Amino acid sequence: MTSYLYPGHYDLVTPDGKITQIQHVNETTALVDVEIEEISPAFVGFDLPDEQVVFNFKSVLAQVGLDGVGEEVVFDRKAHKAFVKVTISAIGALAREMLVNLTEGAYIGKLFAADERRRVRDPDYLGRMFGRSDREGRHLLSLGGMQGSERLTIDKVDGRIVAFLALREGRMEYDPSVRGFLPTLGRSLHHQMPIRNLLRLHQKWRPNVPRTVTPDEILLACSLPLHIRTVFGRVVDSLLPKGIKHTSANVLQPDTSASGDIYELFGNASKEIYDIPLEFFTLEPHREHVFFADRDQLQECLEEPKAIFDAFETAPGPKEHRTSVFLVKGSQMLRLKSDDWIIRNPTQQSFPGVAQQVRQALMVDRYIEQQPSYPFLKAIESGLITSQGVLFTRYFPSPLMKRMLLSYYVQSLLMRIYFQIPSRSEGYYFSQEDRAMLLDLVTFGIPIYWADESSGQILEYVQRPGKTSGMFVPLKKVEIFKQATFFGIYGSNLVEGNFEKELKDLLQGVLDLKEQVDHPLLSKEIPLALVTGGGPGAMEMGNRMAKELDILSCANIVNFQANADQVVNEQRQNPYVEAKMTYRLDQLVERQAEFYLDFPIFVMGGIGTDFEFALEELRHKVGSRKFTPILLFGPPDYWRSKITNRYQCNLNAGTIKGSEWVSNNFFCVQTGKQALQVYKDYFTGKLDMGPDAPIFKDGFVIVSN
Fold first, then answer.
1. Is the dihedral of CA 417, 423, 424, 427 positive or negative?
2. Cβ contacts of residue 134 below 8 Å, gap of 6+?
3. d(Cα 508, Cα 532) in Å, to the nearest integer?
4. Which of 482, 392, 414, 405 is closest to 438 using CA atoms?
5. Does position 152 have pLDDT exceeding 80, yes or no?
């Protein structure tokens, strides 16, 4: 999978080959053996029929009148080599002089794999590239200008797309000085020096000379400057006028710019030639400069959860392996194999910290380079990947990858991230750094999706509007999550209590109330969500009720994994959770801060519930949340035993002076009817709350009617 990530590699061509033996048959013909080395294992030609692998002669030689036709190709796949027998013909006096300057060691051409599967057959494939440029501002496809040209005609011929390039009036010829340049040209071929621009110094444009082909003469016809960065182009000999052929220097590479404007023609024809027919072959998908919006099949695959889970099934095992793959086409996703994934298992190590700044930076860089997503992100940064795509990775990327993920070029090409497991070390639970990176990624427009095996669903990370937190939400409920008013239930993981019926009546009453009021937090258009801690007991009751009433069921789930130093009842996740975020045990405070409830509801609970009560009370005191009623379900005596002594102690000591009014924010209710009346009074502006409202010595209001 990594072969296409190496600089300079295209899978339809080999490197240039050099002459290892030359036999001059006469002054116009030479038979040469060409050896091509360091062929990429990904070269498509290894597996194609012989007739689809052709020798592409160097255009600088074709421009002086030579033509090199490959007669036989033999591959040594293990050694990454090819051996080609080539017949070189000289067309014209200048070419005959150049033939003498070809010697062993000269690099004269490469192999091109004319893979039928890669022919461009859809005119839209080319059309969408006009007017577009790469990140360096270079045209993706144009003839004479950024928007293309009326001198470029695209037709469908024999099931393939052919572009006809209009030729300029006149032809290119040589000054006599070129003969002194031929030995230099011959020597340059031994060193693979770019010398085409020097050859141009000896060429002159003849604007009024007809473009006709005569025997033993090369015709250098010119088009407007052609720019190609998205495909290979090849002259279609069969569509040239009768009696005219193009030399075997007939392949235009994807880095073709203004050099693609000279065509070398020979033969015998009395009529002028007016255009050059080009067919096209696609690049590797990663190099096509294709936008995600143009990948209909890929988008359709990503809309199917089964296709996503099936793709992850191809990831190499065992599950402990860190592995990633970058996908740009639907067919690539559907045909994904284990070998397509990159596996990296970074060595776990402790970083020395900023006290050893240089060593710290070096160790972090090494750790980043060991991540499985690194080769893909690096290839994007260096321009080897040019198409937009999605990253599939077994584990959510390390926060240390943030710098690369948010870099300019990566951010522009990385359309989505899909992962299976939040953490290699902590499994199901995200760290604080993970959650910070989630927010950064969505801020920079990179959506994150969790292929959650526990629920069998694809969950999208969605930030709460106006909040510094988010949750993973089922795809069909993302808009509900964004628009919802959030209720929440705090209570024991051990005891459900006997409030289920009353709570259900309350929530059903709120749903009915939506149809009657028009409040910023409750109206016909505003959906509801309910959040719990996601565990058993009262939390399970709340999530179950939400599901039954078609209210979005959410949870902030913490890792209560008991160990020898803890007395914590392990909390399994209840099966009624739809949207969720997970936290590690040392992040209880952060987890509680990210509930962001509009309407908290407390039922019977223990130390955890006491902690949650104190935080909600503090939020009201400091004004970090809107004044909304907080419900306390249960007998007044139960809540007095929990709240009153503390409230009166603070009151008598003067430690809550000026904040005594917090007591009027809490409402003790025993029935759903009482609770619903509290909400009705609030939504209709009748509920007396806040600094100017009465103070209650119990620390809360007792609702009795």
1. negative
2. 140, 229, 289, 383, 386
3. 18
4. 405
5. no
Task: List the one residue out of 80, 83, 126, 124 whose CA is nearest residue 232.
Answer: 126
Mean pLDDT of 436-442: 95
Tokens read off for 415:
């359309």
* In contact, 246 and 278? CB cutoff 8 Å: no
Helix (H) or strand (E) holding 415: strand 414-421
Report the pLDDT value the prediction gives residue 1, as an integer from 0 to 100.
47
How far apart are the two ends of the chain, measured CA to CA in Å? Answer: 71
Give, to the nearest 10 degrees, the angle between helix 500-513 and helix 672-683.
30
| Residue 282 host element (H or E) | strand 275-282
Identify the residue whose tokens are 């959860």: 305
**Per-residue H/E/C for 185-250:** HHHHCCCCCCCHHHHHCCEEEECCCCCCECCCCCEEEEECCEEECCEEEEECHHHCCCCEEECCCC
Residue 128 clears pLDDT 60, i.e. is over it: yes
Distance CA(41)–CA(43), nearest Å, equals 6
Q: Are 546 and 553 in contact (CB under 8 A)?
A: yes
Q: Which residues pair with 245 in a beta bridge?
A: 266
Determine the Cα angle at 434 with ends 431 and 440, to 5°. Answer: 150
Q: List all residues 6 or more positions away from 456 whose beta carbon is below 8 Å from its beta carbon.
A: 305, 309
Among candidate residues 226, 230, 340, 377, the one with its CA nearest the CA of residue 290: 230
Q: Quick: pLDDT tens for 581-594.
A: 999 888 878 888 88
- Strand spans (E) along 533-628: 552-558, 579-583, 599-602
Tell me the CA distances in angstroms from 148 to 131, 330, 520, one per residue in order.
Answer: 7, 29, 53
At residue 325, what are phi and psi to the nearest 5 degrees? -150, 145
pLDDT tens digit string along 182-203? 999 999 999 988 888 899 999 9
Angstrom distance (rounded) from CA 616 to CA 613: 5
Q: Residue 346 has what pLDDT?
A: 75
Angle at 444 between CA 439 and CA 446, to 5 degrees: 80
476-488: per-residue pLDDT in tens? 999 999 999 999 9
In this predicted structure, the answer to whether residue 423 has a pLDDT above a threshold of 60 is yes
CB atoms within 10 A of CB 410: 23
SS3 assignment, position 264 = strand
Percent of residues, the chain, with pLDDT higher than 70: 94
